[in-house]
Specification:
Order of helices and strands: HHHEEHEEEH
Oligomer: single chain
Helix content: 55-70%
Distance between the termini: 71 Å
Structural class: alpha+beta
Radius of gyration: 42 Å
Strand order of the largest sheet: 2-1-5-4-3
Shape: rod-shaped
Strand content: 5-15%
Length: 259
Amino acid sequence: MRRPFQLTRWFAIIGLTAIGAVSVISSLLLSRFLIGNILERDATVSMEFVQSITVVQEARGYFTGERAADPNLVEFFNHVATMPHVLRANVFSMDRKIIWSSDPKLIGRTFEHNPELDAALAGALQISREEVGWKPEHMFLDPRKEPVVENYLPVLSEGEVIGVVEVYKNPRALYQSIDEGLRLVWACGIGGGAFLFAVLFGLVRHADGTIQRQQARLVESESLAAVGSMTSAIAHGIRNPVAAIRSSGEVGLEGGATP
């Protein structure tokens, strides 16, 4: 015998799976957007700061090799190295060479495989949040530290890129803001999904109960109709013989009364 379809049970299974998946995916996308937006804003502020002191300190000649370092450039680099939460700052020329670094051991080095640096030299701001130690350029950094934010800040002069400032940051306050935002996103995602499921489950359960009551009334009506049809058939079956007997009796009585 085929079992009746259980609407509430199947909705609970399928609805919970679908709403849970949508909530998780939405939370992941919003988390990624939140992290990217916060990090991009912080990097943009840093790039604007670097760009402003590049103009004020007239640093173009040093990047392009037109002149040697002077007190203006020393002040420029000191500004870069003392930016908030900076762990390390490197300055690259257009030939990918580190022409200054807050770690003197890196000055003069070139790291060939560096897609972020290539993109920054082409004029694009690059941002990444990564663990210390998996890139050659991470040498001399403590791998036990928390993940760092690595920014490649293009330096522009007269509308063209003249170099790149690479900044490693460990912004604890920024991390705290990101973590708080992520907790809020996940709480809203899970809470919203649970609320939506509860509301829909209540509606489906009520609809399922209504359908079952209507089915019960329909079955009852069909049963009564069947009983009525059967009663009518029985009555018809009984009435025909009785009518025949009655007719025969009446004929017999009429025949007996004739002289």
